[in-house]
Amino acid sequence: MLQFLHTLKKNDSGATAIEYGLIAALVSVAIIGALTTLGTDLGGIFGDVSTELQDAGEDG
Predict the structure, then answer these.
(1) What's this model's pTM, rounded to 2 decimal places?
(2) Is the dihedral of CA 33, 34, 38, 39 positive or negative?
(3) How far is CA 40 from CA 21, 26, 28, 43, 54, in A?
(4) Which DSSP helix (H) or strand (E) runs through 6?
(5) Residues of 13-49 as b/e, b for ≥16 C-beta within 10 angstroms?
(6) Could you give the CA distance from residue 17 to residue 46 in angstroms, rounded to a whole number?
(7) Along the 60 residues of the chain, how does pLDDT read in single tens digits?
(8) How far apart are CA 55 and CA 58, in angstroms?
(9) CA dist., res. 41 & res. 2, Å (int)
(10) How much is the pLDDT for 8?
């Protein structure tokens, strides 16, 4: 029993998996934030282009 507890104490593979999971979560949050900002900016750009095309169609 004592040998089992000693082995369990030295086993850190679970901690490594948790660290990788935390890194993956942080990267995911950063990507989601960047894509959200990019999507908002692109929505504004396409809205401007749409307005300009509609105005050009009414003039011509």
Answers:
(1) 0.55
(2) negative
(3) 29, 21, 18, 5, 21
(4) helix 2-10
(5) eeeeeeeeeeeeeeeeeeeeeeeeeeeeeeeeeeeee
(6) 42
(7) 778 777 767 767 777 888 999 999 999 999 999 999 998 889 899 999 999 999 988 865
(8) 5
(9) 61
(10) 65
> How many angstroms separate the CA atoms of 11 and 15, rounded?
9
State both tokens at 1. 């029993």
For the beta carbon of residue 5, count every other beta carbon within 10 angstroms: 9
- pLDDT of res. 60: 59
**The length of the chain, given as a count of residues:** 60
